[in-house]
Write a structure and sequence with these properties.
85 residues, 4-stranded mixed sheet, 6% helix
Length: 85
């Protein structure tokens, strides 16, 4: 495991591609840089904020060049904020 301090929404292009990315805050939509940095069969796991502020733990997978989404369960995470904490 490697760690990096920075704006998580930008990912870590120098270390891509990643088999998995785990989100610990709820963006309104998956950040494009994170999706772009996933390996061909990679997955992004985390809460996604829907309309009305509802959140759901979701698994996004890229399979054969297409994105699929699997909702796992309702969730309650902190909201997504850009920048460095």
């Amino acid at each position: 495991i490697r760690a990096r301090h920075g704006d998580g929404a930008r990912g870590w292009p120098a270390r891509a591609p990643f088999d998995a990315v785990l989100l610990t805050a709820a963006p309104p939509e998956p950040p494009a840089p994170l999706l772009e940095q996933l390996a061909p069969d990679g997955r992004l796991v985390g809460p996604l904020a829907g309309s009305g502020g509802a959140q759901a733990l979701t698994v996004l997978r890229r399979e054969d060049g297409r994105w699929t989404a699997e909702t796992v369960e309702p969730a309650s995470f902190v909201p997504w904020r850009g920048g460095v904490a």
